[in-house]
Amino acid sequence: MNLIKTSVLAAAALAASSALAMAAPREVRIASHVSTFSPLHAQSQLFAAEIEKRLPGEFDFKLFPGGQLGEENDLIANVQAGSIEMVNVASGVLKIDGKLGVFDLPWLFDDRAHVERAMAAGLEDAVRKTIEESGNVKVIGVYENGFRHVINTQRAINEPFDLDGLKIRIAGGKFRQAVFQDLGATPVSVPWGETFTALQSGVVDGAEAATYGFYEQKQYEVAGYLSLTSHVYTPSFLIASKAFYDSLTPEQQTVFDEVGRSITAQAYTDAAALEEKYLDEMKASLKVNPVKLKPFQEATAGSYDDYVAKYGEDFLKYVRDTAE
User: Fold this and answer.
1) Nearest Cα to 310, choosing from 90, 104, 136, 138?
2) For the structural domain made of 2-97+111-145+235-271, what CATH number should be given?
3) From which residue to which does the signal peptide run (predicted)?
4) How far, in Å, CA of 264 to CA of 141, rounded?
5) What is the dihedral of CA 169, 173, 176, 177, to 10 degrees?
6) Which pLDDT value is given to residue 18?
7) How do residues 115-133 score in pLDDT, each as one tens digit?
């Protein structure tokens, strides 16, 4: 009798094990508000591929770029509510806590290498902690959305006074709006999808955005100048809902954490390569000029005062300590 009972239990255990082995991979959605042209899409693909290498067959990642599941603010709200597993977003995250507005300050970083040094020196961990505590989410990775530049129909931007009198379509918070106003530009509110027509018709003289934005919208076809002002750098944030992250096994959580950090260097490399590709293709249609940042940094130094008065210099210290 005991032999029969043991055999039955063994058979049941084997069946359960087989069923588990054949279980369908868990579907995980990663949504973004930006298109497949963006570095964010490449980052989501990279993350999914690395997880598959580490945990083969356990997850089925479905990517939803281009606002398919909602605009940026909606995606952030949904991941906070636990109604979507993961999102890869950018400037919308800065609204979670006012201290994150440091990334809206003008000419904060000298170049991508400066960004990487500051992040590695502790800025990334400080930002992660702020987002997780204020936003009730799990930050899997902090990567790159990119530097923002100015495209326009009138002239190359080489010096701060070159912005004087230009009507510029500007996104972002009050810090960015105020900086352009201080330099003599007129901020204009135009939906991003209508910016091409606004440039073509003269409603605006220019726009500021990341390079991939100009490229995907084909704004280079109607604007003669692209100046690499690098006036704002925006990270991207790969975020998981707490509900989803907490439902993972300890092993899966460890792998998600490790992969999220381990792909950081590759994410920066890929973002730089994408930007170079788009710039090379646009150079056939418009003039692209580099910009010496020092005069702009000096002209806008006072714009940091309000931020420092409200939020202190904790984040800024990482930036200043890693500047060359």
Assistant:
1) 104
2) 3.40.190.170
3) 1-23
4) 7
5) 60
6) 41
7) 999 999 999 999 999 999 9
Amino acid at the residue 18: S
What is the rounded CA–CA span in Å between residue 231 and residue 145?
A: 14
Dihedral sign computed on CA atoms, order 111, 117, 121, 127: positive
Return all residues near 176 (Cβ < 8 A) that are at least 6 apart: 104, 106, 170, 231, 232
Residue with tokens 């991939």: 212
Q: What CA–CA distance (Å, rounded) separates 280 from 61?
A: 32
Bridge partners, residue 210, by sequence: 148
All structural domains of the chain with their residue ranges:
2-97+111-145+235-271, 147-233+279-317
The sign of the torsion formed by the CA atoms of 83, 85, 91, 94 equals: positive
CB 152 within 8 A of CB 286: no
pLDDT single digits (tens) 51-106: 999 999 999 999 999 999 999 999 999 999 999 999 999 999 999 999 999 999 99
Q: Please provide the distance, in angstroms rounded to a whole number, between the alpha carbons at the two ends of the chain.
A: 79
pLDDT at residue 304, rounded to an integer: 92
* Contact present, 199 and 206 (Cβ < 8 Å): yes
- Predicted local distance difference test score (pLDDT) of residue 1: 45
The fourth-level CATH superfamily of domain 147-233+279-317 is Bacterial extracellular solute-binding protein, family 7 (3.40.190.170)
Confidence (pTM): 0.90
Full DSSP string of 46-87: HHHHHHHHHSTTSEEEEEE-TTTT--HHHHHHHHHHTSSSEE
Which residues of the chain fall below pLDDT 70?
A: 1-22, 172-173
Q: Do domains 2-97+111-145+235-271 and 147-233+279-317 have the same CATH topology?
A: yes
Q: Which residue has the tokens 């100048």?
A: 225
Q: Are 4 and 12 in contact (CB under 8 A)?
A: no
